[in-house]
Amino acid sequence: MAAEPLPPFDPADPLGIDDLLAPEDLAVRETVRSWAADRVLPEIAGWYERGELPAVRELARELGALGALGMTLEGYGCAGASALQYGLACLELEAADSGIRSLVSVQGSLAMYALHRFGSEELRREWLPRMASGEVIGCFGLTEPDHGSDPGAMRTSARRDGGDWVLSGRKMWITNGSVAGVAVVWARTEEGIRGFAVPTDSPGFSAPEIRHKWSLRASVTSELVLDEVRLPAGALLPGARGLGAPLACLGHARYGIVWGAMGAARSCFRAALDYARTREQFGRPIGAFQLTQAKLADMAVELHKGMLLAHHLGRRLDAGKLRPEQVSFGKLNNVREALEICRTARTVLGANGISLEYPVMRHATNLESVLTYEGTSEMHQLVLGKALTGLDAFRG
User: Fold this and answer.
1) Shortest CA distance to 330 belongs to which of 375, 297, 270, 300?
2) Is residue 10 in a domain?
3) Does Oxidoreductase appear among the keywords (predicted)?
4) Are residues 107 and 28 in the same domain?
5) What range does the domain containing 121 cover?
6) Number of domains into which the chain is organized
7) What pLDDT digit, counting tens, does each position of 218-251 carry?
8) With 0-12 CB in 10 A as exposed, 13-18 as middle and 19+ as buried, what is 322?
């Protein structure tokens, strides 16, 4: 009996990873990819060059209509999608730009996730439906000017005053901060670290935008200033006690980064591959030279290994088996390899690699931020080191 012919080799999917996806997964990916191609790619180079995201509120509403905000959450107008589908969405969004994926990630995996998992029913009903639709944008205030990798040392405080809470402090490098309608803020109290839903029109709250960035330029980044901000007792997230609560939110967001980084890498790889096929030197395309082919082969291997890792972690998350150490594994590997792919792609494009006519340098500079936010490479190495050895190297 004759064997079935093998399927053709697909340079866009050399390992046949699409065979792992169900039709509904592919439909989600195509919907987000088409939206990004229509709404982001034609404008992103200009937004990045000018250092702005002028259509952020409009984009948020469109993303809400797609079901991309709070995508894996159940109820309150959220899509209730699988973790795998959310990962595919993150990949396509970051293939357009890391700033767009950050908008969605902070909205859904940080602010909405915190409210959904730790908030009261009143807070969920107040905020989540409007956040799912994109009517309200949220932000997540954990990092401080002097405390990034060590959030447990935060100085922002909340004290009781009668039936109210009064918050004071500063948060730094907050995505969506100056366009948010609600900020999930973490503060030190007599009871330990607690979370609060802070309406951004509260007296004493301000969110000056951070400018002069050379990375994530098409993203709104802000400082949060809380000057004796008075909140009712109901603003407290009752289910959030201790540092484990914000870290759980970060774990959910880091999962999206595992996928998103591969989107940026894919964009750069494809730009390099297309360029190598058409750019001629010494009378033939540069893709015909051995050294260029070696670069392309190495990029393809790391890109698709990273995508397989993302798929595996997505399946584990959907099965309720994904551990924080495994998320650290994914973020450490995929962001690090994505950066190397971007840098190698830049060498293939030569001088054209620094031009905004191509996506490579934009993705490379964005990934420099992705490398360190939501846990630096060093922190994830130490998480894995502790898991492997059973010895804690975080503190002396």
Assistant:
1) 375
2) no
3) yes
4) yes
5) 17-132
6) 3
7) 999 999 999 999 999 999 999 999 989 998 998 8
8) buried
